[in-house]
Amino acid sequence: HETSISRSVVEQIANAHGNVPPAFNVHPKLQQLLQKRVEMGREGGIDWGFGELLAFGSLILEGKPVRLAGQDSRRGTFVQRHAVFHDRMNGQEWMPLRNLAAGQAKFYVYDSLLSEYAAMGFEYGYSVEDQNALVLWEAQFGDFANGAQTVVDEFISSALQKWGERSSLVLLLPHGYEGQGPDHSSARIERYLQLCAEQNMTVAQPASPANYFHLLRWHMKNPARRPLIVFTPKSMLRLKAAASALSDFTSGHFQPVIGDDSVQNASRVIFCSGKIYHDLVAERTKLGETGTAIVRVELLYP
């Protein structure tokens, strides 16, 4: 499926972030963020948060509604998304993605209540009823999906086989062993892989904003409607090495596996997934090692 977008669409979405309503008082720190997004639309170096907004915005412009809910999804748990801005004087709200073009599809983003079971269950139902919408439920930390494990077991993993019920719900589960103790470290990738069978869902861990962008767009264009589990980053959100070039959005498609074209005649190949790729590349550079190729496995199932 063709998932790239034109440069003009990238700039249209970026420019919407610079088009602040008259007399709207943006916090100075967030003004810098808005300006950076306008620049990223022209120069590249696109980070995770803006890569995601490009996926949302491009789908909205193509007539597909986008709906995201989670415990801190409007801002983003790691202050990376900022899909909603507030006037610092009167609290009025402004959402750039609601102001892209006349006749665009709707964009909804909600901070949900502190019940993963209720919130994920609702979004699952919404995704069954509206097959045209990109519907996402985001965990504050990946392991918080524990609170909705019955929804995952009974519906997300098996409703197609049991009842012929099709859902394309996306679960966004922040994951990364960043030394935060027993909670918040692991999104329990192994649990989802244990539930995988008969191509019942897609499980992915992209290591770049562009591949995440293409994954979300591919998911919406895939006629085989099935849930998508995405293990999303934490420390990688602002890692310069993990940023994507503008050309990665205006060409290409989702890559299930990304080879390593920086190494010729490798004597060793390491397969890895997610954040550890960037750690390994940094270590390889530090050691001056030239014989090891590092290959990213971005699609874990199918």
Report on this structure.
The protein has 302 residues and is an alpha/beta fold. It is built from 10 helices and 12 strands. Strands 4-1-5-6-8-7-12 form a 7-stranded mixed beta sheet. A 3-stranded mixed beta sheet has the order 9-11-10, with helices on one face. The protein is globular and about 60 Å long. The protein starts with 6 loop residues before the first helix and ends with a strand. The mean pLDDT is 96.
Keywords:
seven-stranded mixed beta sheet; globular; 302 residues
Structural class: alpha/beta
How far the N terminus sits from the C terminus, by CA atoms, comes to 17 Å
Strands, total number: 12
Order of helices and strands: HHHEEEEHEHHEHEHEHEEHEE
Calculate Rg over CA atoms.
19 Å
The outline comes out as globular
Average residue pLDDT: 96
Strand order of the largest sheet: 4-1-5-6-8-7-12
Helix content: 25-40%
* Major pleated sheet: 7 strands, mixed
Low-confidence stretches: none
Q: Please report the number of helical segments.
A: 10
How much β-strand is present in the residues?
A: 15-25%
Present the secondary structure layout:
Layout: H1 7-16, H2 28-43, H3 48-61, E1 66-70, E2 85-86, E3 93-94, E4 107-111, H4 116-129, E5 134-138, H5 149-156, H6 159-163, E6 170-174, H7 189-194, E7 202-204, H8 209-221, E8 228-232, H9 247-250, E9 257-258, E10 268-272, H10 276-287, E11 292-297, E12 299-301
Parallel strand pairs: 1-4, 1-5, 5-6, 6-8, 7-8, 10-11
Antiparallel strand pairs: 2-3, 7-12, 9-11
Helix pairs in contact: 1-2, 1-3, 3-8, 4-5
